[in-house]
Amino acid sequence: KSLLVIPLLTSDGLIGFLGFDSVAEVKRWQNEDILLLNTLGEILGNGFGRLKYEENLVQINSQLEQKVEERTRHITQLLELNRAIVDNVGLMVMSTDNRGIIRSFNPFAQKMLAYDATEIVGHYTPLFFHDAVEFLSRTGTEIRELDKTGFEEFNLPALLGLKEDKYSDESEWVYWSKDGKKINVLLSISKLEGVNGETNGYAIVAIDITDRKVAERAQFKTMQNLMFLIQNLRAGTLFEDENRRVFLVNQSFCDLFNIGLDPEMLIGADCAAASEASKHLMKNPDGFIRRIEEV
């Protein structure tokens, strides 16, 4: 007979209707009835809106949790891959905190230096492995003051006489293993920085170049013997480099061409100019120059 209806609204819009229905008789609705219905409609609308908000919030949280889990799995996989690389690479790898104390020490470093990680991590700085005499001669600092105790402003590149903004990939040092083995290493040092650029520590990579140093010394000894042999030959001998500059000449050569200088004073001289100046002494001057250029 009589119907009073209002819309049910939430922040997302219309979700339905709410009303009073008088079926027995015609009813004239009073302002109190309308106010009561509006109040009830607002309460129900807010309640339904709150339920919808909570449902959306649960869905958003579920999606965020899923993304966090996926990201965590990805980061874990990267960390595992990085750990596998560091653990199996044929390089001595270690890292320190900002006080210089070693916090990681890979298996190859343990093998080469004959120390277990538990003996090193948390106890020493990377300077522990350095040759004390070499360190003192190159830095002027006693290594025993620095190798076992961390300190507030540990700056490894500065301690090794390196520029802090560069990698020390050309810095050669001597390490000593626990069993007394001398190891020539090529050090690479990089700063580990935080999100604000602060120094959180250092990563140190040491390459064993002992065999290379042995080969270099053997090569140097061979060159010394060869130079001694050439310098004492009775035949005049001169060697020039790829830029046609003299890098080795003996006294017999100077005597042969009446050069009134010690052989050492000819090192670095222009062979091309000297050949042109002395070609008149040859039976076939042009052939002499041509043959030199061919060789």
Short descriptors:
single chain, 295 residues, alpha+beta, five-stranded antiparallel beta sheet, two-stranded antiparallel ribbon, elongated
Query: Could you list the spans in which at least 5 consecutive residues all have pLDDT below 50?
Result: none
Largest sheet: 5 strands, antiparallel
Give the distance, in angstroms, between the N- and C-terminal Cα atoms: 123 Å
Quaternary class? single chain
Q: Strand arrangement, largest sheet?
A: 4-3-7-6-5
Number of helices: 9
Structural class: alpha+beta
Can you count the beta strands? 9
Shape designation:
elongated
The amount of beta strand, in percent, is: 15-25%
Overall mean pLDDT: 81
Please write the string of helix (H) and strand (E) elements: EEHEEHHHHEEEHEEHHH
Please give the share of residues in helix: 40-55%
Radius of gyration: 42 Å
Secondary-structure blueprint:
Elements: E1 2-10, E2 13-22, H1 31-88, E3 92-96, E4 102-105, H2 107-113, H3 117-120, H4 132-139, H5 156-159, E5 171-176, E6 182-193, E7 199-208, H6 210-231, E8 238-240, E9 246-249, H7 251-256, H8 271-278, H9 285-294
Antiparallel strand pairs: 1-2, 3-4, 3-7, 5-6, 6-7, 8-9
Structure characterization notes:
- This protein is of the alpha+beta class.
- It is built from nine helices and nine strands.
- The chain has helices at 31-88, 107-113, 117-120, 132-139, 156-159, 210-231, 251-256, 271-278, 285-294; strands at 2-10, 13-22, 92-96, 102-105, 171-176, 182-193, 199-208, 238-240, 246-249.
- Strands 4-3-7-6-5 form a five-stranded antiparallel β-sheet.
- A hairpin with a 5-residue loop joins strand 6 (182-193) and strand 7 (199-208).
- The longest helix is centred in the N-terminal third of the chain and has 58 residues, at 31-88.
- The radius of gyration is 42 Å and the shape is elongated.
